[in-house]
Amino acid sequence: MYKKALTSLTILFFMMGFITCLNDILVPYLKAIFSLSYSQAALVQFCFFAAYGLTSIPFSKLIERVGYQKGMVVGFTLAALGCLLFYPAVILHTYPLFLGALFVLASGIVLLQVAANPCVSVIGPKETASSRLTMAQAFNSLGTFIAPLFGAYFILSALTNSTHAEGVVYPYFFIAFVLIIIALVLSRLNLTGLESTAADESGWLEVLKEKGLLLGVIAIFAYVGAEVAIGSFLVNYVMDISHATETQAAPLVAFYWGGAMVGRFLGIFTLKAFAPARVLMTHALLAVILILISMQASGTLAIGSMVLVGLCNSIMFPTIFTLGIKGLKAGQEKKGSGLLATAILGGAIVPLLTGLLADRMGLHHAFILPVICYVYIAWFGFKALSGKAH
Length: 390
Description:
Keywords: Cell inner membrane, Cell membrane, Membrane, Sugar transport, Transmembrane, Transmembrane helix, Transport
Organism: Methylophilus flavus
Distance between the termini: 33 Å
Function: Intake of glucose and galactose.
Shape: globular
Membrane topology: Multi-pass membrane protein
Strand content: under 5%
Structural class: mainly alpha
Protein name: Sugar MFS transporter
């Protein structure tokens, strides 16, 4: 049962990464189709990640009632519906309809996140939770690596001939088909024993008062916000620096997310060899240094150092997540997961603010906001390492 459950969760993490990262292709694509400003284009990520802030806690309550497995089946089905809604958005050629479809799609991903993260943490020994979640997140990163290449070939390549965003129809129809198949297969699997038997009557605010969880919630907000902000504008950043086209710049987004994939596979071993909090602090400080170098440089150095930030991102989410729920009582994991998933709202707020900064001071220097986010994450790692986070 353990291997079957972990395999199912690995596939789930791959699809979550693939769908989420495809937004990094939608941002420059819809920006060009609808002639949007940076802040208007950032509404793609805002509507997608706003779903985390609005639905995480309600979905956590749903998971408490129906369990992990049924929750994931509903999540895949809801995400498929969101993909299908791209069709009327294309037919009517209305940007707000695209944003609505993304919100529905994201709601399905939120439900999957709320169910999957604690599930990976509780199906094995507590002491290896960080490395186990890192392994699952590595396949999430495999999805984020493939998505920009998929999007560049099937979506951005049609940009010159596209006038009504029709380039997204068939790719998202294909994704909807895959999601429905996964939902059907998952619904028929026997994952008896997967559900947590521990129950806890703590209120949401009571759980949030746990210092480690609260600091972790802020850290997840900062991490997702910084990571998504860089990924969202990387195509335009490369275009500004090297005068490349969207199609030429898109593969670098794959390298950005590919760095996270490589780092997560390495993290399976480094998180066992060193204290997870120390690894987190080191990665965050390296991210700060790389972004500052990129902001002051030009050409290949500016692009290369920004792409390398993806490698630094690799172990952050699983490490922050496991450090955040570390001090919770038995049965509080689902509420803790819901609160941590709510913090993924950072993916809506930070890119939007970065876009507003880019409209005013230029994209090259707007990345100061992600720098601030990584500074906080380094501080969180330091607090956890010193034992003061709980």
